[in-house]
Design goal:
Blueprint (H helix, E strand, L loop, with lengths): L1 E5 L3 E4 L2 E3 L1 E5 L2 E5 L2 E3 L4 E3 L4 E5 L2 E3 L5 E6 L3 E5 L9 E6 L3 E5 L5 E7 L4 E6 L5 E5 L6 H4 E5 L5 E3 L3 E8 L2 E8 L5 E4 L6 E8 L3 E3 L3 E10 L5 E10 L2 E2 L1 E2 L2 E5 L4 E9 L4 E3 L2 E4 L9 H4 L5 E2 L3 E4 L2 H78 L1
Parallel strand pairs: 1-4, 2-5, 3-6, 4-7, 5-8, 6-9, 7-10, 8-11, 10-12, 13-21, 23-33
Antiparallel strand pairs: 12-17, 13-16, 14-15, 14-19, 17-18, 19-20, 22-24, 24-29, 25-26, 25-28, 25-31, 27-29, 30-33, 31-32
Length: about 375
């Protein structure tokens, strides 16, 4: 055999080539010709192959013509080796993918001539070589072919890229690129706290202040269960829990209550809590700086300092009231005793008067008897 390496255009018309090894860099045209034992014809990505009214037999591999990457072909009214040998195939040099998701999950379905399925992960930059140039994975790099019966085929492959987080699962599915390099992007939310507004700029320490924060999602995907954390300087502030869900393009006001325990000026900075799964794409999904409120002056209330005096005052008043009540009870008992004593004295006086009256009656009676006796005696 011999090699034909055509760096320019080559035309074979009404001729027979036997035992040749043909490499095309530009136009290779076979018109009303026969290739015997001269296949496969190897066409570089820059080549254009035209087979018209021709016959190709005796390929040394499973295909008569190999089109690399973006090489083109016109195959008209011609016959190949046939059987299990394809008339032509399009073979990609490799299959690479760039994405916007580092460490993203990939699900590949029905890829290549053998309709292969597998799972993979993007690298730390969001890129991946799905299929390299290895000889054993050639079937995964064949994206189109004409079989031995002259029927043309195209792979029906798909790729799904996804990332899961507490904000939801974000994913995108595309038809697998039929070029050596492709790309896929997942639509993501972008969460930003745009305002923190306490209802007052003067507050009482050891109490609370209410207010509103404004949160918006300017991204292209919905996000759920977004936790908002607030800080006083570098320290986590004591606020009520704030969780919000936002559709793409939505903005919401979320109420909060802020507690402070020391006097002084303080500002509240609130920002979305970024899920760990999204840390590698933080700049794509969140405004990390959040928003800061106007300064609030926290002051101790005066009642707090007077509280001990109030406690002592209440205790004294209680003691006085108790003493008065006890004195009242004692006076009542003494009054009842005096009344009872007076009643006994009145009874004794009455008995003495009755006794005197009785004595006087007896004396009167005695006097009368003696008087009668004296009168009798006088008469005698």
């Amino acid at each position: 055999g011999f090699d034909i390496h055509a760096h320019g255009d080559m035309t074979v018309t009404s001729s027979t080539l036997s035992g040749a090894s043909i490499h095309c860099e530009a136009l290779c045209q076979f018109d009303s010709s026969e290739l015997v034992g001269s296949a496969p014809v190897d066409a570089a990505t820059t080549a254009s192959v035209s087979v018209i009214d021709s016959l190709i037999t005796g390929s040394r591999t499973d295909e008569d013509i190999v089109l690399h990457d973006e090489a083109t072909i016109v195959y008209t009214n011609s016959q190949g080796t046939g059987g299990t040998t394809d008339a032509w195939i399009r073979l990609l040099s490799e299959r690479t993918l760039t994405t916007n998701i580092p460490s993203g999950s990939l699900d590949i379905y029905d890829m290549g001539w053998g309709a292969a399925d597998w799972n993979d992960l993007t690298d730390e930059n969001g890129n991946i070589v799905l299929v390299d140039q290895g000889a054993t994975n050639e079937h995964k790099r064949i994206v189109a072919w004409m079989d031995g019966d002259g029927v043309e085929h195209q792979e029906d492959a798909s790729i799904t890229l996804s990332i899961s987080s507490s904000w939801g699962v974000f994913s995108s599915t595309i038809d697998a690129p039929t070029t050596s390099a492709g790309s896929i992007e997942v639509a993501l939310p972008f969460i930003d706290v745009t305002a923190v507004a306490p209802e007052t700029d003067v507050a009482v320490a050891n109490k609370s202040v209410s207010g509103m924060i404004t949160v918006e999602n300017t991204g292209a995907a919905d996000a759920t269960s977004i936790s908002i954390w607030c800080y006083e300087g570098d320290d986590i502030a004591d606020t009520t829990q704030m969780v919000v869900s936002l559709a793409a393009g939505e903005s919401k006001d979320v109420p909060f209550t802020w507690y402070a325990y020391n006097a002084g000026d303080a500002a509240l900075t609130c920002k979305p809590l970024l899920p760990n799964a999204l840390e590698n794409i933080a700049d794509l999904v969140v405004e990390a700086d959040g928003a800061t409120s106007p300064m609030v002056a926290w002051e101790y209330a005066e009642e707090v300092e007077e509280a001990p005096l109030l406690i002592w005052l209440v205790a004294v008043l209680g003691f006085v009231a108790l003493a008065l009540y006890a004195a009242s009870l004692r006076n009542k008992e003494e009054k009842e005793y005096a009344t009872y004593a007076d009643s006994d004295e009145d009874g004794d006086d009455a008995e003495d008067e009755e006794a005197e009256d009785s004595e006087e009656t007896d004396e009167a009676s005695t006097s009368s008897i003696y008087d009668l006796q004296t009168e009798g005696e006088a008469e005698d």
